[in-house]
Amino acid sequence: MGQFICAIDQGTTGTTVIIIDGALEVRARVNQEFPQIFPKPGWVEHDPEEIWKSTLATIERAQQEAGITPEEIVAVGITNQRETTVVWERESGKPIHNAIVWQDRRTRGRIQSLADEGKGPMVQKRTGLVLDPYFSGTKIEWILDRVDGARAKANKGELAVGTIDAFLLWRLTGGSAHKTDVSNASRTMLMNLATGTWDEELLSLLNVPAEILPEIVGNSEFYGEVRGIPGLADGTPVCGMAGDQQAALFGQTCFSPGDAKCTFGTGAFLLMNTGNKIVHSAHRMLTTAAWQLPGQEITYALEGSAFIAGALVQWLRDGLGFFKHSAEIEELAATVESSDGVVLVPSLAGLGAPHWNADARGVLWGMTRGTTRAHVARAALEAIALQNVDILKAMESDLGQPLKELKVDGGASANGLLMQLQADLLDRRIERPEMTDTTALGSALLAGLHVGVFEDLADIEQTWEAEAVFTPDMTKTEREQMLALWEEGLRRV
Fold first, then answer.
1. Are residues 257 and 220 in the same domain?
2. Is the same domain home to 351 and 391?
3. What is this structure's pTM?
4. Torsions phi, psi of 93, nearest 5?
5. How many domains does the chain have?
6. What tens digit of pLDDT does each residue of 37-93 get?
């Protein structure tokens, strides 16, 4: 009988389950999408029951696809869209409202009032986060205040709240476990980063009763036993949990301070390990808990996000009709040796870190009569890479040490030209792993660590293999010219 790990990657648009063995060979990978709900402009919701249905379906199909028995799965790991929030009844387990998704902006007014009251510096010092509707705290407050009878039930301890990790754990264990891990808790705007516990002043500020919150636990420990889940044997331990970006950091084996990864998805999410040191950014990077392993202090990270990465390629494809398939951008951009002075600043949804300009609009600048689709396509790939240069320079400054190399994952990391541009513009080595499902992998590694499939971090490090390496191949002069043009473009947004 083999030893397999089931990793649940519950994302924004769907749920993916992978089953891996001790050699990190993927035996099955199953994905199922679920509907997005947009009740009003700026509002984004999910039906928690649809999330649960997709989770059940993918677990069972993955177990069958792997050709193994449920009993051969020795551990379950969970990773998830982080700030998305669910409130449910303790007795029935039923949600009292749709999940409010991390993208949702409905609490913008409440955030502004907190900012006007001067609460921003205190919140950032305690949580490492900036005041923003992105995080869970104001979402919880909104549900309790808007759902009839919710506030009274909450005060009596009759409700439970959590991010998606906590909700799935509750359901997987038949309601016996109400826990969240330190990485997800650090994204709620309610956890004190220094102590790893719920902060009483923040709970009071956002009117969240402590009784409804999950217990904060580490990332690789026993949380509860599976009960009544098709594809899994009763008694299988759930023993690995982490938010998606922290799970990817772990899956990329970024275990030392200064190690960093970038996940190229719709946006680009960069995390840099800062060790046991809480680094408060001077450039409005987010400070977050990365993970906490048994018997150890919390490991922290700096996080910076570019809102538009893969979405820029989608815009060129769907909005401007440059090509039919996203992968075609690489071939098109490669037909020219440079963008010939064309600069594209992809602030199509404002600018994220380190600029934080919500009102910024996109800029396409530097065109001549000789500009072609290929020049614009190349400028788009350059823009994705240049945004990351800004973020990583800020992180290096905050941490006080240079980046050694950048590990990459996510859909757009398959674009070889983009990765080469990233190496050139950063003047750093870029490594792309053999295993690209790094988010799911991270939760599997955390679960496997607990049950002894992996002995320690050194054992895990040996499993990581590079599929491709990109080294800088650009002159200093050329790099400086491109960075100067980018700076000029930023001034024009």
1. no
2. yes
3. 0.90
4. 80, 5
5. 2
6. 889 888 889 999 999 999 999 999 999 999 999 999 999 999 999 999 999 999 999
